[in-house]
Amino acid sequence: MNVSQFVDHLLADRAFRSCVTAHQRMPPRAGKYREFPSTVDRRLVAALGRRGIHRLYEHQALAWETAAAGKNVVVVTPTASGKTLCYNLPVLDAIARDPGARALYLFPTKALAQDQMNELHDLVNELGLDIKTHTYDGDTPANARRLIRSAGHIVITNPDMLHTGILPHHTKWIRLFENLRYVVLDEMHGYRGVFGSHLANVIRRLKRVCAFYGSRPQFICSSATIANPGELAGRLIEEDVEVVDRNGAPSGERHVFFYNPPLLDRQLGIRRSALLAAKELASDLLANQVQTIVFGRSRLSVEVLLTYLQEEARRRKLPEGAVRGYRGGYLPLQRREIERGLREGKVLGVVSTNALELGIDIGGLDASVLVGYPGTIASAWQQMGRAGRRSTVSLSIMVATSSPLDQFIVNHPEYFFSQAPENGLVNPDNLLILMSHLKCAAFELPFEGEEPFGPRFQGEMLNYLEEERILHRHGDRWYWMSDSFPAEKISLRTAAMDNFVIIDTTEGARVIGEMDRFAAPMLLHEEAIYLHEGQQYQVEKLDWEEKKAYVRRVNVDYYTDASLAVNLKVLDVFSEPGESVRGYGEVMVSFLPTIFKKIKLHTHENVGWGQIHLPEQEMHTTAYWLHLPSPLGDDLGRDELQGGLLGLAHLLVNVAPMFLMCDPRDIQVTAEVRSPFTGRPTVYLYENFPETLGFSEKLYGMHRMLLEGALDLVQDCPCESGCPSCVGPVVEVGEEGKKIARRLLEGLLSEEGKVKNEEREALGL
Amino acid sequence: MSLRDRLRSLGGEKPGSTNALAPTLSHREREHGERGPARWAWPIESVVDGDHYPTSEGTCFVVEHRYPVSQPHGRFSLQSVLELPPEMAVFWCRDEALWGFDPRRAIFLDLETTGLAGGTGTYAFLVGLGWVEDEEFCLRQYFLREYSEERPLLLAVNEALGRGETLITYNGKCFDWPLLETRFVYSRLRPSLSDPLHMDLLYPARRLWRHRLESCSLSSLEQNVLGVEREGDVPGWLIPTLYFRYLTERDARPLRSVFEHNRLDLLSLATLAGLFGQLGPGMTAEPSYLRGPDYYGLGRALEDAGRLEECTVCYERALQGELPQAMKEQTLARLSLVYKRLRQSQQAIDIWHRLASRHDAGALWPCIELAKYYEHQAHDYRMAEEMALRALRALELRWSASSQAQDRADLMRRLHRIRSKRQRSTCRSLPAESET
Fold first, then answer.
1. Interatomic CA distance for residues A550 and A506, integer angstroms
2. A573 lies within 8 A of chain B by CB
3. Single pTM value for the model
4. Integer Cα distance of B32 and B153 in angstroms
5. Does residue B19 sit at the A interface (CB-CB below 8 Å)?
6. What is the ipTM of this complex?
7. CA-to-CA separations, B229 to A455, A682, B67, B138, B431, in angstroms, rounded
């Protein structure tokens, strides 16, 4: 069955149709082309011609013009629209004309860098010029490094390597830095939040080193569709950037379905599991030989789904290896093999986390199934874009879970289809991040006079570092004065360092994967069932100090799910002290994994539990909070109040990302019936990384909007007394939870009204 | 909350291990913020005897020592540096470019730095150089009084480097020279020695002494080979801290020990270089400072260079000295194989017989060697068969099962071949026997 026939087959299915809340057919789009500009080096035009490229897409031509005019550019295009040529064209042209010229490519992962190098090699071979293109990362052999440093024309690396391996050793890269013409930032939309804030500082350092050697590179960025590509690029490189977003690439017809699993119990608001619904849809696709990618939201859901689909594949006698898993913890070789299998069509189905959202080349697939809304519009389009070819029909199905955000989206498809995707937010001046990179920068070159770092002179911080005897001031210069190597201790992605290694001890000892230290306590505690490529392993021992988890293959009919106890302490208040109910400030959050539940496969019933004994972890961050003003809630019993407050917290944390337009994982919530800080029942929304990226301050500013949004969500929900899609399940919030949460919200909103009126009166209005 | 308090509370700043030794600046110091080189309690000039060396961009503080080359250092003198022949330099450093080596154009180099991490934030605050000039060993130490004096320091260093063509260092290939090059690039200067010939004595020292000494650091060689005793020497890890303390407290007194440390390092380096000139191909003396394991190391070096005759002499000498059991067997093994290459079969066979008589897996290879010898050279198939059988027995005693199968198959093949040869030879000799 081809995809077109499959769509008809779906539409003929009454049960399927009854669950569809939206069906969008996007017509095929013809490509918009331009002739090669006459200014492009003829040898390059000829080489591209030999590879079957005789003209450019409109956005490629625009990118060329902008770069040729000496401006920075960010190209915004969907997956598979020939974005690499947008930067390869100006870069190769520059080197073809001036063999002394150099370029630096930054990709967020090593895998992408490798992918890109292979593509460039092919083009350079066709060109027949001696343009040396190398990847430079942790895997580069020591003997090759010297040559790459002095002779590499295009150095392809990742931000982490630039940060620890290149900038602190800039004297060894003098040829690169003296002649650096272009810096390419691919997958720029990924540089937001903590990682983006770090990267912005790495770029400050890069530009500082370039200036020292007398070069001033141009930046070419490429990004998936986000709301603010120009702004994000501008914040990352702190220069003017032109946005090119007129996509000229052709695309085939695409069908997008929003699928809401049927309600099993209207009273309790219980829906059929999205996982099971997705499993059936995917099995149907695979049975009809439609090459399909299924995106799960967590490693756990990926592995559970993979188990189901592999069982299904065996039943349907599909060849061994037709259905594979793909996620961060898999080893590189395994991943390469799966990618190749997808391109060659040997792998019919793949179940992946968002790891495959990035631009790894797996070719275009026929269909994509999203298990749950990925949290952001940009991410949803990226995942759906994995299905889609230039000329044939493709299909995407988003299966909603019962989470409030999913339910909001699936019931308000217009929000998804008409609204701009999220903002990429970064805060390069996050105090901790800035301080870290100020140290690295001082290590690289002394600060002189009123020399700015970023837009400002950081005198106060330099003085602080001098007091701490990390810098030494002499005259008007600050010099590095420590025998340490600062970049080594600073990870650009909070999770990248300190990974736990997972060792299978079933036969001998074999490393099968790794996991970052924040996920490890939840997924690798002793007795946890760890799933890897559909195989179950039980964790026998977790060596916390050595960061090793020893596992053994098992075959059980349950998986495990751990709970986390969160404790929050307010350290400092940034908001006005006189504020009635809201506030924001600095907090210390501590996490303690407590127990885990054993959950039976297929039925998802609870079949046992155990305790987790692991040390507490702490994080300094920023939170926004609100408390119930007296006497709101005072008439309630403790349990009722607790339930209502939990419901309120659940509503708030689910609407907050929509207003912030951020990743839902960036905001976490905790509630206290009697907060030692406010003395009242309080809900805290905190940022899920150290210090702040500005989210708490924004939430504080949109306090009223947030309350109104939460009220809408609870009012619109069809359930009777609470469900996971609004205040949370009845078992957590109690029979009265939904009603009480709603009352609390109304009370809070009337309080806001009162405050408004008082203000008006005070102002004499 | 002030910025300082916020930074402290965020826990981002914990003074590093070295900085922890020094208290942070007091409030008073901060308020009266004395900047620049004024108010030196103990400037370097008051602590170490040196001069202000003029350069085109300001002066640099330099300490100079001159020693007659006959000056003793431990149980040696500097004299032998001048007798370091190019042949030995090539032999020890395995670098053909050193055929042009001239000891009068050699520069000894040793740095004291603000850290071991490398990278552009690591500075060389004391550059120690040495060379031979008019039968004198000239030792100069260039000191960075302030970070801002780096250019004059490098200009002065460059003047001295310009008089040489070969660098002699200890671990300088990995550390000192790249670090100094980094400083030059950083100051936008070009070292007057670019891509110099370089004798890094760490590698030859390891080849020669690692069989006896646990550590081949320069200080270990001083104690165990050169006979140099240091009193109150400053430990290397403390050196960056002492310099940082000098910078912030403006007290140069603790640095006196660093100058001394660097001076002794350079003298030992030069002495060591001279020592290598006396060891190697064509050496006649039997220096008393070489022990059994050292002769083994020397033998290995000669073997690698293809100087087999001299190599056997060294191995024999090693065996005369005291050797740990394992090394003794290793020496015997290597010696027998060198004899074999030299076609001095008898010597080799004697050793193999000695080793083959053991009752463990170690007898395996000598038995095989003997089997080969009796089969191919002596054509004594009875002995060859016996040796192959003994090899099989020895193989049983080896506990690595994985490689056993292959070795067993090889041995069985050998045994079959020997047996068939033996049969053929007995057949052929039978008629002769019947005649007699």
1. 9
2. no
3. 0.80
4. 30
5. yes
6. 0.83
7. 56, 71, 19, 22, 78
